[in-house]
Amino acid sequence: MGLAEQIEMRLREAFAPELLEVRNDSARHAGHAGDDGTGESHWHVTIVSAGFAGQSRIARHRAVHAALGADIMGRIHALGLDLREV
Fold this sequence. Notes:
Order of helices and strands: HEEHE
Number of helices: 2
CATH superfamily: BolA-like
Radius of gyration: 13 Å
CATH topology: GMP Synthetase, Chain A, domain 3
Shape: elongated
Strand content: 15-25%
CATH class: Alpha Beta
Number of domains: 1
Largest sheet: 3 strands, mixed
Structural class: alpha+beta
Distance between the termini: 29 Å
CATH architecture: 2-Layer Sandwich
Number of strands: 3
Helix content: 25-40%
Strand order of the largest sheet: 1-2-3
């Protein structure tokens, strides 16, 4: 299973989102700092979930990082997040 599928699986389990988009932006950063040559270093995630209701932006980011876990976060150089409640 590729990293995109792992990210999607963990976020679906954690947030039961109405909308989940996982986009690999690594090709746009080839040769830049943080590009490790794997093609899986830069990501953007959009989540719309009722689970974010009442949470601050920082709390939402922390929740996503926790859901992904240290093993996935350790493989990612850059993670853009667009997190909204339903």
